[in-house]
Amino acid sequence: MSQHRRALAVTAAVASLALALSACGGGSDSTDGTAEVAANPDFASGSTMARLAKAGKITIGTKFDVPLFGLKGLDGKPAGFDVEIAKIIAGKLGIAADDITWVETPSKVRDEYLAQGKADMITATYTITDDRRTRVTFAGPYYNAGSTLMVKSDNKEIVGPKSLKEPGLKVCTATGAIDAEVMKKYLADPDDQLVQFDVFSKCADALRTGQVDAVTTDSAILLGFVAASKGKFKTVGDTFYDQPFGIGIKKGDVEFCEFVNDVLTESVKDGSYEKAWKKTVGDAAPETPELPALGPCE
């Protein structure tokens, strides 16, 4: 199955199941040992890996409002597939989950948090684009999603992005997300029709209350909101823009990027990638996706 079709299948599976997620983001406890912690790992002197391993701690950015991928629970910790991928990488540095400092990184702040050193790396439904590559070095991708639309379940008028040409229809996405630029070409009046909030959960609330007619972002994010809606939301149409999720690190740190890519490759071989998926997204979409072809570190 192609990654494009797999993203559709994942979203469709969630829409049909309409799972009720718990406040901690669904799946099992995020401390059940998905990521093994390396004992006394050895890294080249002066490398980011050596610095982090010596410190025994790492700061990682993720989403706090995206069910199944990065959702902050009542215990104050995020849970989801992005979180588990980050734990696998930290574990290879010899850093346990309890020694990770999690910082919320909504779409609009991800680039600057890396540039300012507020996060050592970011796993936050972070789509790799050519424009972002000018500011960020990306490891991965570790998952391929695709842009789609979410509407209320009783909406029969909106069946895809071309349905949004009608003036007056409102579509919501997050500030700083690639989806805003992608969607503009489908709208009759982007200035009037496009609504943006700092986080996607506010878009879901706006859809629920009728302030907007649709929400757009990648299928991975929307699958969580569909599941959490208890049948009130659905996704419509095919995916219309590929969104490969990457792990953002500071621009130019090629050595760290290559280390992360090696960890991703190894995670498939040792089963931790599959374990992370089944633990977080597996109830909604049982088939574990294939690790995409890794891109260049630059």
Automatic annotation (TrEMBL):
The keyword Amino-acid biosynthesis does not apply. Belongs to the bacterial solute-binding protein 3 family. One of its GO terms (biological process) is amino acid transport. It comes from Streptomyces himalayensis subsp. aureolus. This is Glutamate ABC transporter substrate-binding protein. Residues 57-284 form the Solute-binding protein family 3/N-terminal domain. Keywords: Signal, Transport. The keyword Transmembrane helix does not apply. InterPro entries: Bact_solute-bind_prot3, Solute-binding_3/MltF_N. GO terms for cellular component: extracellular region; outer membrane-bounded periplasmic space. It comes from the Bacteria. Residues 1-23 form the signal peptide.
